[in-house]
């Protein structure tokens, strides 16, 4: 039985659900939790309307409350006996009525009131319902909701091992714990970050952590620019504000300070380094997690410890000569591992003394250690030379990679080390230190050679810098990087400005890719350009976003001061790569990657309702008689269905339009083709479970379906298989699973049975379950093309061994594991083969999704497999689309319709139907082939179909999402292409010969009148079985045609590899306007299928 769409008022409903008095109806008394009846309210075009569903069989108030609770709403209301609505509050314009006004009995409980016409029975929960922050798991406690940092990530380590679609707090905390981190944070519903501190200005937030975890809808996983943060162990004593942990509860203070003491060490002061030596030289360590506490522990055997450059720790019992006190304010760099405390600066140490010890007298450095001369080193790597003495940077190190200290260090040793690591510059300092890089940073300056006065411990004839002085050796002249700025141009990309991100918890640009520790502007911009995006932006130094310039306006993002984009690109330190929640943004200013047409007249085509159907079809095809065959999930469908129906288009508008047919097993998710026998029998193989998976069913048009699994069956049971007529006329069956979500069937078998068992294909087993309903086609070269998940290959048509593996099929810009076949479902067609058939056959695949968060793809890809080195060409689509259908049209274009904007194929796994049609014209330049067509008003999601009819229209059917939002769809539509709306006359023709041999010449047909619109052409479209985005049998051929007046001839395609044997729609076009077509057979029945199967239980037409 059909589900009623939420909000629909049916006159029959009002007649069948007569109002009762309230004395006959009783409000439920045992409501869950703290839910209570609130009253009867008027409907004011959504009194409450944040979520809704309808159930004309089982609606009750309790069911509605459960539905709203699961979605976190505190108000639930029933209306019209069968409709449920949820919300956060009641509309202020709604009026509370007498309870007696809500007098319609619930469909699922005739003793309860479920609102009335334009009236709602409303219930309210006085306590929060639905999802809540996880209080703690895996030894971690919930610290609270935090904002992202202003100068980088609040938690700096991103976890990439958890699929975004399955993210939970438990998985994130476990990953951080395994990696040894103290903090874990979840963000954007599917992202996990770890760290040992709250970094970069991240702070408690009073709101914004409202996104459900993708893997657990009962808990929150942060939000846009918001993290739910967890800390290892129990929380410290806290104070709270509105349930949010206040700043005082964060383990680290907010502002950087110089603590008065660290354990038993007392603040001694800020000091300079010694003359030509370290101030403290007994022991040294360095780490990017440096804290004062870590340094004090390392130096616990010494009287003093000092921290410099945020990350370097020095120990000693005395200060070397030349180290003097400096103003405390000079020690201004925050600790690398704890940015709330200071850890020295360039040539400045934050020094602590054990128990406040007074300093002993300083120790003079030996005269042998310092010299004013600067002899040139010999034995340097080829091309390397000494480049002078340089001062350390004023805001950080002059060179950004530090090697371990060495007592055998020298200019030669350090240069050799840096060269081996791929660097072009080396620097020695304090004798034992070696630094490397490809540029000199942080405003360091070249100074007198005499200032680099410390002898190298490994070669006293060389100088190895001094305190705050670096002896530079380089290959060529060292590059000096100026203070980083946004790169103004990169090729044809132009810098647009610093923009906001995460407005209202939404990304400004949708697609995110990560380039940790290596990001340059070019990396990000090249990636976006490859996939056809004309806007690119970089954030947090390592995150690349791709989109379109219009996203700026639609997201509400505004341009911000340049100072807010302040994070240096780690792979190109002269450039800026965004900021915290700020995007360094570029627009493409070269030749546009795409140019779509948006016609507003007949060129957009139109949708029309054809008929209200009697079934929700899963598979649709047209018989060679021009009638439409519908197959549905009989064994699992409504009890009054037979599973098979035939629609006579000539009887639409009468009660005789549908003819009931019959099946014995369930064709739910089977494969199908039209056989090349002389009556065009239809074949389906496989199915839902048990015997159905072995099902091999035949339909002789005009008769009924025949099957007997004991006499005719597949060798291997298959659910979600594909089928194809081979060049030799046999039936190729590939792939599937043994049943519903069961083991893979990674094999190929042939019908009729050849005596050979199914052939195992390791690549099908390896790619299960993302390879179901693979796209298959006979190639003109003689091979068989197979596309599955994100791979493609060509098979030998006799042995089925792999002849060629194609490059990986591009998916999403940020995810090469995105796929094109079920359940990551796209749609595929073959591009036109035009006389004289010299161009290699093209394959077009549009849409799909990825296996993580289910982001639908917004591109098409195409290739020509028989090319010597086939490559995939990427073309943008105007919107995201998973579960599309594609129908070849007589004029050589393709209609793209149906599907959803997000999710996967399957029951309840997608949302936001894509109601817009597209037209793809392969004769136009790449990037300009798509025209945005008309919209339908009907959601066509999982289990929808599209086939081209003989009259040139496209029949659109089905949709069975089972998502409690969009109904099972019985209505059948047609899409009317522009060639039927342009006002031009349609041609007519007569064709006597409808059974052709390959390469047959001069097959005669006669026009009803002379051409009126332009050239006369012919198109042949293969007979199609449409299911799950797979148009099995689809093929487009444009043969040689000659006309003189109204007398014309057409030549048959040359071979079985150009046109496999079978039935084709034959269209005559006058200036692109098609006549009503007829079916012709090409190549006969070479496999003798007309005599198959050899069983008395099946009707056989003969050969």
TrEMBL record:
<keyword id="KW-0732">Signal</keyword>
<feature type="domain" description="WSC">
    <location>
        <begin position="34"/>
        <end position="126"/>
    </location>
</feature>
<dbReference type="InterPro" id="IPR013783">
    <property type="entry name" value="Ig-like_fold"/>
</dbReference>
<feature type="domain" description="WSC">
    <location>
        <begin position="264"/>
        <end position="355"/>
    </location>
</feature>
<feature type="signal peptide">
    <location>
        <begin position="1"/>
        <end position="23"/>
    </location>
</feature>
<feature type="domain" description="WSC">
    <location>
        <begin position="492"/>
        <end position="589"/>
    </location>
</feature>
<protein>
    <recommendedName>
        <fullName>WSC domain-containing protein</fullName>
    </recommendedName>
</protein>
<dbReference type="Pfam" id="PF01822">
    <property type="entry name" value="WSC"/>
</dbReference>
<dbReference type="Pfam" id="PF07250">
    <property type="entry name" value="Glyoxal_oxid_N"/>
</dbReference>
<dbReference type="InterPro" id="IPR015202">
    <property type="entry name" value="GO-like_E_set"/>
</dbReference>
<feature type="domain" description="WSC">
    <location>
        <begin position="139"/>
        <end position="233"/>
    </location>
</feature>
<dbReference type="InterPro" id="IPR009880">
    <property type="entry name" value="Glyoxal_oxidase_N"/>
</dbReference>
<dbReference type="InterPro" id="IPR037293">
    <property type="entry name" value="Gal_Oxidase_central_sf"/>
</dbReference>
<feature type="domain" description="WSC">
    <location>
        <begin position="383"/>
        <end position="476"/>
    </location>
</feature>
<dbReference type="InterPro" id="IPR011043">
    <property type="entry name" value="Gal_Oxase/kelch_b-propeller"/>
</dbReference>
<dbReference type="InterPro" id="IPR014756">
    <property type="entry name" value="Ig_E-set"/>
</dbReference>
<dbReference type="InterPro" id="IPR002889">
    <property type="entry name" value="WSC_carb-bd"/>
</dbReference>
<dbReference type="Pfam" id="PF09118">
    <property type="entry name" value="GO-like_E_set"/>
</dbReference>
């Amino acid at each position: 039985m059909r589900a009623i769409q939420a909000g629909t008022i049916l006159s029959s409903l009002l007649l069948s659900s007569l109002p009762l008095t309230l004395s006959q109806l009783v409000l439920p008394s045992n409501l869950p939790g703290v839910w209570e009846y609130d009253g009867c309210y008027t409907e004011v075009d959504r009194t409450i309307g944040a979520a809704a569903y309808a159930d004309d069989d089982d609606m009750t108030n309790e069911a509605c409350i459960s539905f709203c609770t699961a979605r976190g709403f505190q108000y639930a209301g029933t209306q019209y006996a069968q409709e449920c609505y949820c919300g956060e509050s009641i509309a202020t314009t709604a009026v509370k009525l007498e309870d007696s006004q809500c007098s319609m009995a619930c469909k699922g409980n005739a003793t309860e009131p479920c609102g009335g016409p334009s009236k709602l029975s409303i219930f309210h929960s006085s306590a929060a319902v639905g999802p809540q922050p996880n209080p703690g798991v895996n030894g971690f406690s919930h610290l609270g909701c935090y904002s992202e940092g202003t100068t980088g990530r609040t938690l700096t380590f991103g976890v990439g091992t958890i699929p975004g679609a399955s993210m939970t707090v438990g998985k994130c905390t476990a990953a951080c714990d395994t990696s040894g981190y103290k903090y874990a944070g979840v963000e954007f519903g599917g992202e996990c970050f770890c760290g040992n501190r709250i970094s970069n200005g991240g702070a408690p937030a009073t709101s914004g952590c409202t996104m459900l975890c993708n893997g657990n809808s009962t808990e929150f996983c942060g939000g846009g620019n918001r993290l739910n943060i967890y800390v290892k162990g129990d929380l410290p004593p806290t104070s709270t504000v509105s349930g949010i942990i206040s700043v005082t509860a964060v383990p680290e203070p907010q502002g950087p300070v110089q603590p008065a003491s660290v354990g038993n060490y007392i603040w001694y002061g800020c000091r300079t380094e010694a003359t030509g030596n370290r101030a403290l030289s007994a022991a040294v360590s360095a780490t990017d997690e440096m804290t004062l506490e870590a340094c004090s522990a390392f130096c616990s055997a010494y009287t003093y410890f000092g921290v410099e450059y945020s990350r370097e720790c020095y120990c000693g019992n005395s200060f070397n000569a030349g180290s003097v006190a400096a103003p405390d304010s000079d020690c201004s760099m925050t600790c690398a591992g704890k940015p709330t405390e200071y850890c020295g600066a360039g040539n400045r140490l934050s020094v602590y003394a054990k128990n406040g010890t007074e300093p002993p007298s300083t120790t003079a450095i030996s005269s042998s250690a310092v010299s004013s001369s600067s002899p040139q080193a010999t034995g340097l790597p080829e091309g390397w030379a000494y480049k002078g003495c340089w001062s350390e940077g004023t805001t950080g190190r002059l060179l950004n990679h530090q090697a371990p200290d060495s007592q055998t260090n020298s200019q030669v040793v350090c240069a050799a080390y840096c060269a081996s690591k791929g660097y072009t510059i080396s620097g020695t300092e304090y004798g034992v230190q070696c630094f490397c890089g490809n540029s000199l940073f942080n405003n360091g300056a070249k100074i007198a050679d005499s200032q680099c006065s410390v002898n190298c411990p490994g070669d006293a004839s060389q100088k190895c810098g001094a305190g705050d002085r670096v002896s530079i050796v380089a290959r060529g002249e060292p590059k000096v990087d100026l203070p980083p700025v946004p790169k103004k141009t990169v090729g044809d990309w132009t810098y647009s400005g610093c923009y906001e991100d995460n407005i209202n918890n939404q990304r400004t640009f949708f697609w995110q890719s990560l380039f940790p520790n290596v990001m340059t502007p070019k990396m990000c911009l090249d990636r976006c350009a490859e996939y056809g995006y004309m806007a690119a932006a970089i954030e947090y130094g390592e995150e690349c976003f791709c989109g379109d310039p219009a996203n700026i306006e639609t997201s509400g993002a505004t341009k911000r001061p340049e100072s807010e984009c302040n994070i240096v690109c780690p792979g190109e330190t002269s450039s800026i790569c965004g900021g915290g929640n700020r995007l360094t943004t570029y627009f493409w200013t070269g030749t546009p990657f795409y140019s779509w047409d948006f016609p507003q007249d007949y060129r957009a085509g139109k949708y029309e309702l054809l008929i209200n159907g009697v079934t929700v079809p899963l598979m649709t095809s047209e018989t060679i008689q021009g009638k439409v065959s519908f197959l549905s999930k009989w064994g699992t469908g409504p009890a009054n269905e037979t599973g098979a129906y035939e629609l006579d288009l000539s009887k639409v508008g009468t009660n005789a339009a549908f003819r009931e047919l019959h099946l014995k097993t369930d064709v739910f998710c089977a494969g199908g083709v039209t056989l090349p026998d002389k009556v065009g029998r239809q074949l389906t193989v496989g199915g839902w479970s048990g015997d159905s998976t072995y099902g091999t069913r035949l339909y002789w048009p005009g008769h009924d379906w025949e099957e007997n699994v004991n006499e005719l069956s597949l060798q291997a049971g298959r659910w979600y298989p594909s089928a194809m007529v081979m060049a030799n006329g046999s039936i190729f069956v590939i792939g599937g699973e043994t049943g519903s979500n069961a083991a893979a069937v990674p094999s190929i078998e042939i019908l009729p049975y050849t005596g050979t068992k199914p052939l195992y294909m390791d690549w099908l087993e390896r790619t299960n379950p993302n390879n179901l309903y693979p796209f298959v086609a006979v190639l003109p070269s003689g091979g068989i093309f197979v596309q599955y998940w994100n791979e493609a290959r060509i098979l030998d048509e006799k042995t089925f061994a792999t002849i060629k593996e194609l490059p990986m099929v591009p998916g999403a810009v940020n995810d090469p594991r995105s796929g094109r076949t079920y359940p990551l479902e796209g749609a595929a067609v073959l591009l036109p083969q035009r006389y004289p058939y010299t161009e290699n056959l093209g394959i077009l695949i549009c849409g799909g999704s990825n296996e993580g968060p289910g982001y639908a793809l917004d591109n098409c890809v195409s290739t020509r497999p028989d090319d010597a080195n086939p490559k995939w060409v990427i073309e943008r689509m105007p919107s995201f689309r998973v579960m599309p259908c594609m129908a070849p049209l007589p004029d050589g274009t393709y209609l793209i319709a149906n599907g959803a904007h997000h999710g996967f194929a399957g029951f309840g796994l997608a949302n936001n139907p894509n109601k817009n049609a597209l037209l793809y014209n392969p004769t136009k330049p790449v990037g300009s082939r798509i025209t945005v067509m008309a919209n339908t008003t009907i959601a066509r999601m999982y289990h929808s179909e599209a086939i081209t009819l003989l009259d040139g229209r496209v029949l659109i059917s089905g949709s069975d999402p089972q998502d409690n939002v969009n109904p099972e769809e019985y209505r059948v539509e047609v899409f009317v292409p522009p060639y039927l709306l342009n006002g031009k006359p349609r041609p007519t023709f007569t064709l006597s010969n409808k059974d052709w041999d390959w390469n047959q010449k001069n097959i005669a047909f006669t026009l009803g009148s002379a051409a009126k619109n332009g050239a006369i052409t012919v198109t042949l479209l293969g007979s199609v079985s449409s299911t799950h985005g797979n148009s099995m049998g689809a093929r487009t051929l444009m043969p040689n045609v000659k006309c003189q007046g109204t007398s014309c001839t057409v030549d048959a395609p040359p071979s079985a590899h150009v046109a496999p044997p079978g039935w084709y729609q034959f269209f005559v076009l006058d200036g692109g306007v098609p006549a009503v077509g007829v079916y012709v057979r090409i190549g006969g029945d070479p496999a003798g299928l007309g005599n198959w199967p050899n069983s008395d239980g099946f009707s056989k037409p003969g050969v």
